[in-house]
Fold this protein.
Amino acid sequence: MTGPQSAGYDYDVVISGASLAGSAAATLLARRGVRVALLERRSDPDAYKVLCTHSVQPSAYPVLVELGLGPALEAAGVVRNGSRWYTRWGWIEPKAEPTGPELPWALNIRRSVLDPMIRSRAAETAGVDLLLGHRVTGLLREAGRTVGVRASTPQGEREIRARLVVGADGRDSPVAKYAGVPGRTHENSRFAYLAHFRGLPLPGDLTHTWFLEPDMGYAFPNDDGVTVIGVVPGKERLPAFREDLEGSFFSFVRALPEAPDIDSAEQVTKITGFVDYPFHSRKPTAPGLALTGDPLWGVGCGWALQTAQWLAEAVAPAATGRGDLDKALKAYARRHQRTLLPHQHIAVDFARARPFNRMEQLMFSAATRDAALARHMHRFAGRFIGPLRFLNPAAVTRASTVNLKHRLAQRS
């Protein structure tokens, strides 16, 4: 055990889940003087999440910098890149102003590299005890408050008491269920499959997204020359994929506008995916408990890292007994909900596999024709701004003007 015990507690914080959110939170909390037990149900320190876009949103880059992972990521071949988005009006290709700074980039690196790297950083941080093979099986409760966990370990059952329990255990969080945290489930009318290919160049080596209304496609260039291809059709196409997964997958990719030459590439993983991926929205806190991570498809890596940072900033002093923990958790919950909920509402609505609504038509079409609006969309897609700032009056007015000028030019 690290350091002296506080009265009645084995640790200040116990975290369930040593993936991105849990490992980042453990590291950032311990650097602020918090004693952390980081529990991971898997026994392999190199375990990683397979089903992922393997891309970290630009807004989360500062968290990786704070973790000190920049040099290790560069050595591992992380791909810094921007994006291109296909729409029925053409391509949106955000570019920096000629005299302005570079656009913030996303970081693409496979989870087989990133997960062990960030877990190792947590394990080597003073104040963190990484406990592999520890699966949380229940919570310790006193007077309506969570005060620790019960865990199944290689040595048998164990109880670990802490001021704060953190559930960093995925979108179907067992910790949230054990605590009875209220939440809602939202249907996703799409399904998704992904596979990795080597030798699949993309224009500009950029991440590509195809908005096909309602279907979607993705291509993410990653480390070691590997590109992750994802297809996200509406569920009306599911029977064809179930009948012939490989044929349907390849046909979908071949039909994409400016499609990557998938037939000439080397497929290095099997096609994996999900057919039912509902969104979950929950309160991020309860007495003695906090949740980190993100339930949204495609951007979970970024939000996992950012929620870990928000949590550490909010609760570190109180977790050591030097402040009001309930007040700190309320501050974390406010930031979590203020930042994440608007994005989640947009994602839940769009997951109905519908065509663009009128406001989306306005903004996407104008962004294909105007460099400033393309940069504005880049800030929204990179999660630097939320939906309200994206649809601010000035941006909507500019988009309307751009499209009006375009229509007048076509008529003349």
Remarks:
- The chain has three domains: 11-54+110-183+280-345, 192-274, 358-411.
- The first helix runs from residue 20 to 30.
- DSSP finds 13 helices and 21 strands in the chain.
